[in-house]
Amino acid sequence: xxxxxxxxxxxxxQTTDFPLLLEVEKAEGVYMYGPAGQRYLDMISGIGxxxxxxxxxxxLQAIHEQxxxxxxxxxxxxIVQAPPAQLAHALAQTLPEGLDxxxxxxxxxxxxxxxxxxxxxxxxxxxxxAFNNAYHxxxxxxxxxxxxxxxxxxxxxLLPDVRHIxxxxxxxxxxxxxxxxxxxxxxVQGEAGVRVPTKEYLQALRQRCTEVxxxxxxxxxxxxxxxxxTFWAFEHFNIVxxxxxxxxxxxxxxxxxxxxxxxxxMHSLKNDPMLGHITTFGGHPVSCAASLATxxxxxxxxxxxxxxxxxxxxxxxxxxPAVREIRNLGLMMAVEFDSFDTLKxxxxxxxxxxxxxDWFLFCDNxxxxxxxxxxxxxxxxxxxxxxxEAIVEEV
Length: 395
Ligand code: PLP
Fold this sequence. Notes:
This protein is an alpha/beta fold. It has 13 helices and 15 strands. It has helices at residues 4-15, 45-48, 57-67, 82-93, 108-123, 140-145, 149-152, 199-212, 263-266, 285-300, 307-317, 340-353, 377-394, and strands at 26-28, 31-33, 39-42, 101-105, 127-131, 162-165, 180-186, 215-219, 243-246, 257-261, 325-329, 332-336, 355-356, 358-360, 363-369. A hairpin with a 2-residue loop joins strand 1 (26-28) and strand 2 (31-33). The termini are far apart. The mean pLDDT is 94. Bound molecules: pyridoxal-5'-phosphate (PLP). Pyridoxal-5'-phosphate (PLP) is lined by residues 47, 107-109, 112, 135-137, 186, 190-191, 219, 221-222, 247. This is Aspartate aminotransferase family protein. Its cofactor is pyridoxal 5'-phosphate. It comes from Rufibacter immobilis.
């Protein structure tokens, strides 16, 4: 019989060109552990998933308690399930007044699909506007919104009425017109390599959408749930979306997503056709229980208060002539080098030293740094020391 490692290697060889980097047997807090007891500092959190660390005890407890009650009962209709109801209520309390109708799904891509359907249904328009280098998911609708042609070419035809405009460019805002159902924007672009728009730009975008009656959808699948130091990244910019999407860090490691809007908008999915959007597993009770515990951990353990100081510690420590730039909003960080070759050597060397980092889908010269928000200052120092050692050895 093949060991898990052999099975994985066999599968990997058949399906991708990526080398096996590390085998993980257990994860806890900010660490991953290999089968021979190797310890790795996790600087990417499963791409913004483990914001409260791996297997946070309160998240595990909530999961166990729900497992003892029921798993799945019914998608819609007559049965009231406490976990989604409680989670929807708690989410609404983190949001500006009125953004309180929550539709649960199981992933980020699904949340984006739901948000786009909702915008089309509510406005009666078809055009969707997204941005260069945007990443919104892998399903056919969300893929259509992605701003990298490389990812879309093989799958055309995709959604027909999608237009891309330049990120953070005021001059392009006049392309948003009374034909536009929705503009969808990552509040902070993630896979583009952490691109933070200006406050002036986001406020002008908000105003333009309001003027022409287009809905503003903010995708906070990567930037939400505390990642940037506020519960939602849009709080930094003093704007409010019409529809918000979230997933990833929301479940504390369990699969869940949501699109959230005001009641008058969300109600347009209820009729004609009846139940215009349905998903069997969306808002799974176990995921909702985990998500509620995650939300409480972020609020009650004071994680938000230290995000900026922790990000600054990374910036103070990761100083080297090979580091061209560090872009960030809170602990959503990109460390830029001159090329993918340099970066790849540093990432591989850092793994050997016990630190897991990564690059970005649409920005392959920048290192992703997005550790659990629970990371301590001494852990940041250790991670930076090891990354710097890798830089010194590889540059
Ligand atoms: N939107 C953003 C901003 C993302 O970063 C991602 C995933 O990386 C998605 C959507 C898609 O989420 P999922 O992979 O859960 O479908």
